[in-house]
Design brief:
By secondary structure, the chain is mainly alpha-helical. Helix content is about 50%, strand content about 10%. It has 7 helices and 3 strands. Helix 4 packs across helix 5.
């Protein structure tokens, strides 16, 4: 995905973000040096302040304004993207995410995963809550 994005000035994501993070496509765009244009939320405002001109609300006017800001000054948009990437990495890198996922998985493996080998399928009902009789 990064290779494909790297040839473009910007990538617009219209999927609404959750308030505490952003979609992976935003991180892919940053990693490719492509300006991510996406909806602004609490996380992006706090962690990505240099790219606020390229964020939008969930309305067509602000989406158009964010895209127009990129097109009006592509060099500034790319500089904001580079600065954002350097400030986010390595705190929000894929390696860090995988380490966190591994730690979480190891901490919850306990009883539910005690009898499972990594290559075996999960037996029916292991992750389903027991129903009251």
């Amino acid at each position: 995905m990064r290779e494909g994005l790297g040839g473009h000035l910007a990538a617009v994501s219209l999927n609404p973000n959750i308030d505490l993070s952003v979609h992976d496509r935003v991180f892919f765009a940053l990693g490719a040096g492509t300006v991510p244009v996406f909806d602004t939320n609490r996380f992006s405002t706090a962690e990505m302040p240099h790219r606020t001109r390229y964020g939008f609300g969930q309305d067509t006017t602000s989406i158009a304004a964010a895209v127009e800001a990129v097109l009006a000054d592509p060099a500034a948009a790319q500089a904001a993207t580079a600065t954002t990437m350097s400030e986010l990495y390595p705190r929000f890198s894929m390696q860090r995410s995988l380490q966190d996922i591994h730690e979480i998985t190891m901490s919850i493996a306990g009883a539910a995963g005690a009898g499972l080998l990594p290559a075996e399928p999960v037996p029916a009902g292991v992750w389903t809550p027991k129903q009251a009789a």
